[in-house]
Amino acid sequence: MILEPAKPEDRQGILAVTAKIDIFTDEEKDTVRELWDEERDYKFIVAREDGQIVGFTCYDERGLTHGTYDLYWIAVDPSARRLGVGKALMRATEAEVKERGGRLIVVETSGLEEYESTRAFYEGVGYEKEAVIRDFYKVGDDLVIYTLHL
Questions:
Q1: What is the pTM for the complete model shown?
Q2: Which of 28, 39, 51, 127 could bridge across to 122 with cysteines, CB 3.0–4.6 Å?
Q3: DSSP category for residue 62
Q4: Contact 62, 68 (CB under 8 A)
Q5: pLDDT band with cut points at 50, 70 and 90 for residue 125
């Protein structure tokens, strides 16, 4: 597996992986495309197997902070799950954040049952549940915030 910063020609591969993630809504999938297409320099790291993108992360420094980064997205092609791709992407992202002077990574996710494996993944790779804001996304859908101090 190759992990590297995304290149302009990776747009279609990133969007193809995003399209395969069943728990992402259409609005969320559109957001990934918008982040890629925006003039602002969001950072993407891709994981490649045999030349094909099998996963990616999107992150950037949070405005008005010093060294705090948001992990906006992590997505792994369903065919590549449970093979260490997600963990490798997280470690590569953490290394990049640290290299840029980052000291804290913040991840926000849903509290819905279908995101249980996502939350277990974050905890399994060392992120701490920092806060829960009840009914944040909608009634019955909490915001769960995880952090990792580098």
A1: 0.95
A2: 127
A3: P
A4: yes
A5: very high
* Phi and psi torsions of 99, nearest 5°: -60, -30
Assigned token pair, 96:
């990049």
Residue 137 phi, psi (nearest 5): -75, -40
146, burial (CB in 10 Å: exposed 0-12, middle 13-18, buried 19+): buried
Measure Cα distances from 33 to 11, 13, 80, 91, 115 in Å. 8, 11, 21, 23, 21
Tell me what pLDDT residue 39 has.
67
94 by DSSP, 3-state: which? helix
Architecture of domain 2-149: 3-Layer(aba) Sandwich (3.40)
Q: Which residues of 3-39 are buried (b: 16+ CB within 10 A; e: fewer)?
A: beebeeebeebbbebbeebeebeeeebebbeebbeee
Q: Using one digit for the tens of pLDDT, what is the confidence trace for 59-90?
A: 999 999 999 999 999 999 999 999 999 999 99
Q: What is the phi/psi pair of residue 7, to 5°?
A: -110, 160
- The secondary structure of residue 40, as a DSSP letter, is S
Number of other residues whose CB lies within 10 A of the CB of residue 76: 24
